Amino acid sequence: MKSIILQTATRYLLPILLLFSFFLLLRGHYYPGGGFVGGLVASIAFVLHSFANGTESTMKILGYKPLSLIPIGLATSTVSVTVPLLFGLPPMTGLWFEEPIPVIGMIGSALFFDIGVYLVVIGVVLTILFTIALND
């Protein structure tokens, strides 16, 4: 679909939706949200861009194939789950840095787990949808 209205709207909505997905990601380890919901919102932003401008144009924006995000996200989540074992703690025990970071707040292993989930969700959703779109 090559609608000038949708293309113009997407130009403004893509950065706003990506910023909102990042907000949901950072908010997730204190309140509802997190990696899964943030990843879905980011995927929706790229799918909307794909509808307006074509899948090839969206792939150029991403720079990498979405499939490459899946192992990176899995590795990030796995490391965040297993690091407490090095300290003699059970897996998935929350570890936190001593000092809060301005704007972001306290950073801990839960955030890194959410980042891994965020990347996996974006990778899976975009791989599936772009594969379907390119085969039509």
From TrEMBL:
Subcellular localization(s) per the UniProt record: Cell membrane
Cellular component terms (Gene Ontology): plasma membrane
Transmembrane region(s): 12-30, 36-55, 67-89, 101-134
Topology relative to the membrane: Multi-pass membrane protein
Major subcellular site: membrane
Keywords: Cell membrane, Membrane, Transmembrane, Transmembrane helix
A Pfam family per the record: MnhB
Annotated ranges, domain Na+/H+ antiporter MnhB subunit-related protein: 5-127
PANTHER family, per database record: NA(+)/H(+) ANTIPORTER SUBUNIT B, NA(+)_H(+) ANTIPORTER SUBUNIT B
Similarity comment text for this entry: Belongs to the CPA3 antiporters (TC 2.A.63) subunit B family.
Entry protein name: Na(+)/H(+) antiporter subunit B
Originating species: Sphingobacterium haloxyli
Classification lineage: Bacteria, Pseudomonadati, Bacteroidota, Sphingobacteriia, Sphingobacteriales
